[in-house]
Amino acid sequence: MNNLSFDNRFINNLPADAQTENDCRSVENAAYSFVTPFKTIAPHLITVTQPLAAQLGFSNDDIESLQFTQVMTGNDLLPGMQSYALCYGGHQFGQWAGQLGDGRAINLGELVTSTLGYQTLQLKGAGKTPYSRHADGMAVLRSSIREFLCSEAMFHLGVPTTRALSLSLTGEQVLRDKMYDGNAAYEPCAIVCRVSSSFLRFGSFQLPASRGDETLLTQLVQHCIKTDFPHLLSEDREFSTHVYLNWFSEICDRTSDLIVHWMRVGFVHGVMNTDNMSIIGETIDYGPYGWIDNFDLNWTPNSSDAQEKRYRFGNQSQISQWNLFQLANAIFPLIGEAEPLQTILSDYAVNYQQKWCDMMAAKLGLKAYQGAADLHLFQSLEKLLLAVETDMTLFYRLLANLPDDLDLQSHSQWFALLSPCYYQQSALDDPYRQDFRAWLKRYLARLNEDGLTQSKRAKAMNQINPLYVLRNYIAQQAIELAEQGDFSEILKLQRILQNPYQEQEGNQNYARKRPDWAHQKVGCSILSCSS
Ligand code: AMP
Ligand code: MG
User: Is the CB of 124 under 6 A from ligand 1?
Assistant: First the structure.
């Protein structure tokens, strides 16, 4: 690992917390605090994302070395690494929460790679920092498995995300009240090594803005532009209002791309607080997230949000705009006028809608979105999918098999084709079948206009409609085995989720709809923030 080169631009360019004791405190005029990861008692590497490791410059021998396990569990630092925790704030469930920060995530440094540029390595669950507030700085195995598997699943689905390099046990146990119901129990601790070119969040800019610290705010914005948005700078490398507005505009653009991807694959983040919104538009902080089984715009897996459902599946675009509005407020001092920011924010809704329509057209195998009639087709489909419990993932895969010469008069033909995606066959009553047939008629007519052959259409559809997603119950099964010391299911899922769009011989079980037993099971359809 001696050939790895670190260039820690964040800590070299931005002000550090002057105090170095590791006690919880308010950290002002500083972007981060130096901290040392907690020494773990019995580190054990469960798995590594081999291709990512290779891209980062780790050889197979490196990965197998004891030193790699020690570094991935916070017991050792490689030459050039310097460990630190970021200071940030955020709005949680709509309320300003003040300083939050990396309460259990510790950055190890910025690795300079030949294929991925600068990549920061970060250990999640590596012990207390000045931002831990009343918590212990640890992460439990179940939430670490969920983060590890889902980050990589998202990557292979083509959704922007922080990556996960390794998953390890630390040997410690901590007490957690998993469902906040008074039933606390000891759980094994784990560490995920996350990787991203930036771990800055909307809240990183909100905190100095909330304190009136324009100096730090400007330093952070300029650093972010220089390192992650360098194309926005002209040759003279000067900053101006124009550059800041372009930066904000690109953040909006990346955020709308991200949410459209989430809607495409059926991902519900669950905690879209502004401290969980990546400035570079990646999915970040996998907590009580969930995957849509039956298409339900009102669903949220997060039990802490069960009443308000602020972060429900169908509300993710509105919330992202609300979050961007908070970011706009934070950077306002650098712009000095509200109007250009407001224009970008109102364009956001329009751009989102356009991207969503393009995405829906692609999901349905249309060559391109063609305006109001198509929008009506999408909206009526959503109504049908909501009317009876329909598995979203399976529905689009099965729809790709629809023959061009489908006999609409015969209900049994299309019904036989689609039946595996329905949760309750008995709900498919006559009126529903009539409505569905009417929709199919319009859809087939629309396909006919495009004139693609069924096989071409199916091929295109199967490239954007995944077959294998990390269904909640599937992750839960891997967790339950891992908690008994059997990690085989994690390794198996790691492999399956690398090819989410391709049918995999022998893995049909992983593409099935949610079994009945998982419908109301904790961990499968209901999760808390406890992690
Ligand atoms: P989250 O809801 O996971 O995004 O976390 C919100 C805030 O709480 C962040 O500042 C986290 O770093 C912090 N946090 C969450 N869990 C822990 C923990 N076990 N120990 C310390 N800080 C934590
Ligand atoms: Mg967070």
Answer: no
Average pLDDT over residues 392-404: 96
The pLDDT of 72-79, averaged and rounded, is 98
Closest CA to 112 of 21, 9, 41, 184: 9
Mutate to test the pocket of ligand 1, among 95, 104, 187, 528 (most ligand atoms within 8 A of CB): 104
Nearest protein Cα to ligand 1, atom 11: 103
Band (179; pLDDT cuts 50, 70, 90) = confident
Q: Which of 17, 228, 275, 391 is catalytic?
A: 275
Dist CA 2 CA 206 (whole Å): 38
Of ligand 1's listed atoms, the one at least distance from the Cα of 139 is 19
Same domain as 327, residue 430? no
| Same domain (yes/no): 220, 189 | no
- Residue with CA at minimum distance from ligand 1 atom 2: 529
User: 521, 466, 494: which is closest to 50 by C-alpha?
Assistant: 494
The pLDDT tens digits of the residues spanning 188-222 come to 999 999 999 999 999 999 999 999 999 999 999 99
Residues 38, 186, single domain; the answer is yes
Q: Is 72 helix (H, G, I), strand (E, B) or coil?
A: helix
pTM here? Answer: 0.98
The per-residue pLDDT for range 149-177, each reduced to its tens digit, is 999 999 999 999 999 999 999 999 999 99
The answer on 48 and 22 residing in a single domain is yes
For ligand 2, the distance from its centroid to the CA atom of residue 328, given in whole angstroms, is 20
CA of 347 relative to ligand 2 center, distance in Å: 28
Domain that holds residue 332: 212-361
3-class secondary structure per residue, 108-166: EEEEEECCCEEEEEEEECCCCCCCCCCCCCCEEHHHHHHHHHHHHHHHHHCCCECEEEE
C-alpha to C-alpha distance for 229 and 280, rounded to whole angstroms: 9
Choose the residue to mutate in 32, 100, 194 for probing ligand 1, maximizing ligand atoms within 8 Å of C-beta: 100
Q: Which residues pair with 189 in a beta bridge?
A: 140
User: Are residue 389 and residue 332 in the same domain, yes or no?
Assistant: no
Which ligand 1 atom is at minimum distance from the Cα of 285? 4
**Mean pLDDT of all residues in 489-493:** 98
Residue located nearest, by CA, to atom 6 of ligand 1: 100
| Catalytic residue flag (residue 450) | no
Domains of the chain: total = 3
| pLDDT at residue 520, as a whole number | 83
Q: Tokens representing 311?
A: 């972060």
Using a 6 Å cutoff on CB, does residue 98 contact ligand 1? Answer: no
Rounded average pLDDT over 237-252: 97
Confidence category of residue 337, pLDDT binned at 50, 70, 90: very high
The ligand 1 atom nearest the CA atom of 129: 21
